[in-house]
Automatic annotation (TrEMBL):
This is TetR/AcrR family transcriptional regulator. Residues 37-56 bind DNA. It comes from Streptomyces albidochromogenes. Keywords: DNA-binding, Transcription, Transcription regulation. Gene3D superfamilies: Homeodomain-like, Tetracycline Repressor, domain 2.
Amino acid sequence: MGIEPMGLRESKKQETRQLISDQATRLFIENGFEATTIAEIAEAARVAKKTVTNYFARKEDMAFDRQDEFAAGLARTVASRAEGESALAALRREFLGGVERHDPVIGFSGEVFARMIADSPTLLGRLRDLHDRREDALAALLAAETTAAPDDITPRAAAAQLGGAHRVLFQRILELTLDGQSDERIAATVSVAAHRVFGLLEGSLGDYAVR
């Protein structure tokens, strides 16, 4: 008897969270991120200001509502790599799959959303933080997967290179989006770029962290 009400509560909480995020993003796009207040977001979502801050510790978290998925993505991909597959090969495969899907997590956000980010120093700063979080998570995973010694810099160096490749490609998608190009055209361009970027790492990381 207790399972269903808990499920309903969790579903309601998720709906409220999504509503707040959607209304906040709409206001950020219409009025600018910095100019939008928590009170305005609460009014648009028809909830109390306290509810907004309970769900989102920072205003920028409402714009990046998939940030946890983003930050954990590289580590999760490497953790689930196939037998005989290296960390580099797994990340290249997953990124190219994301290009085919026009995955928002790798940068396919649409011109309006991309402009919202590009016009906000706060959101650009938060995006850099998320890239750092993603790289840190990957470094920790690589250290565990390769049973590296605590003073071994290799996992951190590898994560920096692999994370850097993803930063470059994310930025390229953002630039092409701001240029007004379609997702299909961006995907064609970035697919070629991804092969080039990951190919540059093949000599140093092609046989690293092979399962």
